[in-house]
Write a structure and sequence with these properties.
The protein has 387 residues and is mainly alpha-helical. It contains 17 helices and no strands. It is 76% helix and 0% strand.
């Protein structure tokens, strides 16, 4: 059993590295799609993503959720909002990369946890610990410094960070699995995206059919580029702790930042280095605080779990019986997640990406930091929102 557990852990870690590695290296992909403009690339991403996830859902035969969603207008409305917000996120990111703003785009995903914290306080009325307040204050200072460094507010970073945070909050309330959520959102995006491509073709601006087979294949592969990291993320989510996934999530913006500086040769004057250093300091504070909170929670819950296990076999009282039933249910849930593979795994750990738990006492902050010590809610980001 121990060998199997270690093997599963290694498999999960490799899948996590693959997922966040692909998200981190995606700035290398979008320039390959030129001369297509950012809007055409975005439309192709919507159309081909739906095709990809539709095939995936056909393979696993998971369609019951669609009928339930259509019978719930409020949830459907939230999916529409999520689709609109992620459209902004995807579009701005593609434009930023292809316009030479990779570093500023990476900053958006560095400051996203700080934005999520602010939303937790302002919208969910959560309480922050001193270290978390310090992180938010340092992050705000960093934005001011970067405004000086860029000669303007870092609007690309702020748009990506706020759209990603709003997307995660909305998805938490929708409560759909990762692949199902992507299918629902791209289904809403599909007709407008297809209509735009047809309009572009009618006006002679569509590059899909005019730049050769290779170019067309690259545009079609945008669906794979969107969904494949999600599959790897799902495989990792059911095999490694959420704290590990939380730390891995920083790989994506780190890779993007390094690509912007070292590969694309974007300028980094001292003011920008100072701003980024402040952001990284805020994230160190946030992550350290979340790790400490997680360890304290584990120490507090440990004796209670032991007592519950001791009481469960006898089930001598209603609470003991409920605890036993809960343990059996949890084991069944874990087994089901393993059986259905990566798709169900996404649901288990989407809190790492969304960063908004909605529970009091700062659990949204823990999730936002990427090292949640609290129960997993939804994704957010989902990682589907990743660039």
């Amino acid at each position: 059993m121990a060998g199997t557990s270690k093997s599963e852990g290694r498999t999960g870690l490799l899948n996590g590295l693959a997922a966040y590695g692909m998200w981190g290296l995606v700035p290398l992909f979008w320039p390959l799609l030129k001369p297509a403009g950012a809007t055409e690339i975005l439309a192709h991403r919507m159309v081909w993503s739906l095709a990809f996830v539709a095939v995936a859902l056909l393979v696993v035969r998971r369609w019951a959720w669609a009928g339930e969603l259509l019978r719930q207008p409020r949830r459907l409305g939230l999916v529409v909002i999520a689709a609109a917000v992620i459209t902004v996120n995807w579009g701005v990111y593609i434009w930023a990369v292809n316009s030479g703003h990779v570093v500023e785009a990476s900053l958006g995903y560095f400051i996203n946890p700080l934005v999520t914290i602010a939303m937790g306080v302002l919208i969910l009325k959560e309480r922050l610990r001193p270290a978390q307040w310090a992180a938010v204050g340092i992050g705000f200072t960093a934005v001011l410094v970067l405004t000086i460094g860029f000669g303007r507010p870092p609007w690309i970073s702020l748009t990506l960070a706020f759209s990603f945070a709003i997307y995660g909050l909305v998805k938490k309330k929708v409560n759909l699995g990762g692949v199902e959520s992507l299918a629902a959102e791209t289904a809403i995006q599909f007709l407008p995206a297809l209509g735009y491509l047809l309009w572009l073709s009618a006006h002679g601006g569509l590059t899909f059919a005019t730049e050769g087979v290779g170019h067309a294949a690259l545009l079609a592969s945008t669906g794979l580029v969107t969904a494949l990291p999600l599959v790897c993320f799902g495989a990792a989510a059911i095999r490694v702790p959420l704290s590990t996934l939380g730390l891995l999530q920083y790989l994506a913006p780190v890779f993007q930042f390094l690509l912007g500086v070292l590969y694309f040769g974007e300028a980094m004057p001292p003011e920008r280095w100072a701003g980024f250093a402040l952001v990284w300091l805020a994230l160190v504070l946030l992550t350290g605080d979340a790790l400490r909170t997680s360890r304290r929670a584990a120490r507090t819950l440990g004796p209670a779990i032991t007592e519950g296990r001791a009481a469960a076999p006898g089930a001598t009282d209603p609470a003991g019986a409920a605890g036993a039933a809960g343990a059996i249910g949890a084991a069944g849930a874990i087994g089901a997640a393993g059986a259905t593979g990566a798709i169900d795994g996404v649901r288990e750990a989407e809190s790492v990406a969304s960063g908004v738990s909605g529970t009091p006492g700062g659990t949204a902050v823990a999730a936002a930091s990427g090292v949640p010590g609290a129960p997993a809610p939804e994704a957010a980001v989902s990682p589907l929102a990743k660039p």
